[in-house]
Amino acid sequence: MKNLLSFIKDKSYYLLGGTILIMVLIVIIASCSKGNGNSYESIENKMVSAAKSYYEDRKQSLPKKEGSSVKVTISSLVEAELLNEVTDPKNSSNTCKGYVEVTKVDDDYSYVPFLTCQGTYEPMYLSDKIKDQKQDELGNGVHVMGNEYIYKGEDVDNYVSFNDLLWRIIKIDQDGDIKLVLAESTMDIYSWDTKYNSESMYDSGNTTDYLLTDIRKSLNSYYNETFTKENKAKIVSKNLCIGKYLLTDAFSVEKECSVIKENEKIGLLNPSDYQNASLDLSCINLNSKECVNRNYLASGDIYTWTLNASSKNTYEVMYIYDTIGESSASNGKKINPVIYLSGKVVTNKGNGKLDNPYLIK
Hints:
Layout: H1 2-35, H2 40-56, E1 69-73, H3 74-79, E2 87-88, E3 91-95, E4 97-105, E5 108-116, E6 124-125, H4 126-132, E7 141-145, E8 148-152, E9 159-162, E10 165-172, E11 178-182, E12 190-191, H5 214-226, H6 229-232, E13 238-241, H7 253-256, E14 260-264, H8 271-277, E15 303-309, E16 316-321, E17 323-328, E18 332-333, E19 338-341, E20 346-349, E21 358-360
Parallel strand pairs: 9-21
Antiparallel strand pairs: 1-4, 2-3, 4-5, 6-20, 7-8, 8-10, 9-10, 10-11, 11-19, 12-18, 13-14, 15-16, 16-17, 20-21
């Protein structure tokens, strides 16, 4: 018996080692299987690689205009023998559909896959998710105003993760595009403008021409340095409203948009965005204290210059920090940049809450 126990004890080390080896092999095989196409992400990566090869031989078909796009479907890539037929990793009897959208970005191209495996993997347009959101009993949520879908209230689920940054959805505009504002102010401080101005008591800060301002230069630098090529393809150009106000004026889109800077990729909030975010009907004038009520933009996370300067002089600008105030353009403030995403952007995760934001693919 003693010899038998010794034998088992000696062999147990081999059995333990063999078990560990088998477990390691299982992990390696599983990892290899995932990398070989048994995940939706790997399928999308193969779609992009196939699309790049497809257009390598069809360069004349690539878009020529900045921001314009073309699409190549999975069936076209299969027909060109650049991609195998795509089957659902979770259901081999289900054939997936989709396409790769190719967008001209500066001097290069962005390739974005759109994959749909019915019943198991069906990313949705973010705009559809927004339109489906309901208001709570207090009115917090999405309100339809004209042809726009606008978030109003203090407690709204409008968080988005994009380009590894957290944003908040302001609205879907009349063009169907999605206006976002950075959820937290930048750490850096920016002057709106510091050019010499004899009218200013500080001899600096000039608001007569937005095109020449420091803030526009800073915003464009932020855009170029922050966003990846793929994500720039999801951002659309917009006309910015840069008209001027008095702090005692009533909110007015007509006044705000009396001056426009066309085709900009990045900007800042307008006072009307701040008003629209409030559920308090007494939020009428820029200096109405009631605007802070039930307003997600009236928080410490939003501390920013706006796009709109004062009409009483050539050196003061409106800013938002809880309320709307005005300050010399030469002063330094943090900013919450604003961008517009294409209404065609897709999300496959999240519900808009702070701890589970919509994730842009």
